Amino acid sequence: MPTDTAPADPPAQAPDLGIVDSLAQLSFLVQGALAKVAAELGLSVIQLRLLGVLRDREPGMQELARHLELDKSSVTGLVDRAERRGLVRRAPSPRDRRAVQVTLTDEGRAAARALEEDAGRRIRALAAHLGDEQRAALSRLASTLVAGATAV
Amino acid sequence: MPTDTAPADPPAQAPDLGIVDSLAQLSFLVQGALAKVAAELGLSVIQLRLLGVLRDREPGMQELARHLELDKSSVTGLVDRAERRGLVRRAPSPRDRRAVQVTLTDEGRAAARALEEDAGRRIRALAAHLGDEQRAALSRLASTLVAGATAV
DNA sequence: TTAATTTGGTTGGTGTCACGTACTAAGTCC
DNA sequence: GGACTTAGTACGTGACACCAACCAAATTAA
After folding, report:
1. Is pLDDT at A6 greater than 50 in this prediction?
2. What residue intervals traverse the membrane (chains A, B) (predicted)?
């Protein structure tokens, strides 16, 4: 159970932590980077994630809940707060009079773009110690894992 | 800004998401797995992390705050809740009468072991679609990245 | 075509978590 | 001795997540 993201001694040759610890530590590292990105705009990671999902979708609340793996009541609150900040809008669904379409506002879209850029910078910085080939290999492997693990 | 962990179509050949999106998505995947592991014992990810740090340390509150990158007042609350659950104990420091040593209780140690095992299972399951060689390569690359990025 | 059920969403209550500010007590430095 | 720093707590606030209960619209059954 690898839980430590605080600076450690730089090993001349990095010891292999094993698949479990290395992925867990990596995830804390990346999440920390994303948290800092979001914090620059006064947002949380979950708000960043919300904006990310809405970049190419106009889902209802239920669908949003599935994407974010949250309870629907949690999504109500999440969207409430994002709406209060002027980042998203609730529009009535044209198909279903009960339902709602959640949409990015212009401000929200601008924020999403800024976050995306900054996240790119920060994550690339994390991988700065890797060589080009290593980085490419890591990207491929991570992509493969993600594809395999999310394909139900 | 890759924010989606919900199931997607399984691509015959996984497209490379790029280093940024692949690492971000991977981090959400791993954090989700850790959240489920913790939830099985009625804990949160940060509590899991706390137990992980305490496996091989008996830090003071300040030191704990540094390890977890939290404000010291946040650590007070965190340890309060863990103590209330019987997982950790506050002992007076022998060196400094102001300070405290945070220690795992027997119950806490048992929980840490259980979490560790289960996290291993779940993370290995995530990587189940990778071949042995791929998994080993990913582990090495992730280890290298972590070592490089945490070495101040 | 009513009646029963499912679906989409909100409300209200509870607990966790993180922060900032303010505070006490103990250690350290002149 | 007094000034300053360090270790930790207390308190108030806000974000976040869940559950249970609820309403209204949509769908299915009778």
Report:
1. no
2. none
